[in-house]
Hints:
alpha+beta, nine-stranded antiparallel beta sheet, 8 helices
Amino acid sequence: MDFPTRHPNQPLPYDPSYEIEEEDEAKTIAELQETMRGIAETVHKDSGHAPRGVHAKSHGLLRGQLRVLDRIPPDYAQGLFATAGEYPVVMRLSTTPGDRLDDKVSTPRGMALKIIGVPGERLPDGVGDSTQDIVMVNGPVFLAPTAKQFLGSAKLLAATTDKVPALKKAFSAALQGAEKAIEAVGGESATLKSLGGHPETHILGETFFTQVPVLFGRYMAKLSLVPVSPELVALKDKPVDLEHKPNGLRGAVVDFMSEHGAEWELRAQLCTDLATMPIEDPTVEWTSPWVAVARISAAPQAGWTHGLSQLVDEGMSFSPWHCVAAHRPLGSIMRVRRAVYAASARFRAERNGMAIAEPVNLDHWREH
Ligand code: HEM
């Protein structure tokens, strides 16, 4: 493909020709739906509860306030960030597996953000909603270049669901040793981390990334959420003791949030060159600068309770497709996520007998 010639740092306006349908995309969607359902079915059979097919365990359930920053550079003042505004948000911290494991099995972390009351044109299936979700994990790149290749890893992961949790724990300890050895020579391995080799550090110290792009008004962007308040910054890479603490990550969030508030910056990175910042291959890290567009602040609060788990884990779903049209997700991984997330949420709503709906405010937020 020929790419238009422009000043190297100028953002590239979106064009539909940049999105390329992957071969067999419809089949990949159907198989991913089935794979995720298989994981949730297995867990449901054992526990009587239907969780998310992945990211089943929550470690923090927070409410906060997002404020769009003043004086955002014009190219970044797009969509939701084009006008001054403040919105309530829900934040759900999770780890990747579909079964709720002992935290000693240390896996990558997720952060799902739901911004409530966002005005603007919606996609046809979201008419009437007012939420903008931003769904992230704690690394800049996705583990597979295409949805079809991700399906292969997802099937492998599904095959390990509920297979002797104690074995997973021992396996995880061995992998953490291997990960440390790899890091000592300057590398890191996404595969080892996703299988339980993630370092045992405080989840609130993490920086989170969308990894895959969204429309950003006229442009295309990846987003990240970065701790900025000093107490939160101090948690970066801070070890947590998870020995005999199956829910130690949650405990660490509760301890922190009961004493401190927290602030994050939401940053956007615009695509300036399709050759080096592809839309269709999220294993490639984009290189353009990150620019702050909003701040999220959370006052001291409970951090996680069973009541909040009912409200957020059970009563809500997060998806990049809960969005305004100006931030529509882009690329094959994102397209595939549309139906797969919706099916996963429908499955758990049916099995758990619990309605899942997009909130219009946080009036029902009760910590106990
Ligand atoms: C083809 C690729 C992907 C598939 C098939 C997939 C599938 C899923 C499914 C089925 C759920 C559960 C939805 C629900 O029941 O509400 C989920 C949740 C989640 N996914 Fe993905 N995912 C993909 C890519 C990604 C990427 C690229 C990220 C982030 C960079 C991500 C981060 C998350 C997070 C954080 C959650 C938990 C959301 C919550 O807290 O409710 N996923 N994913």
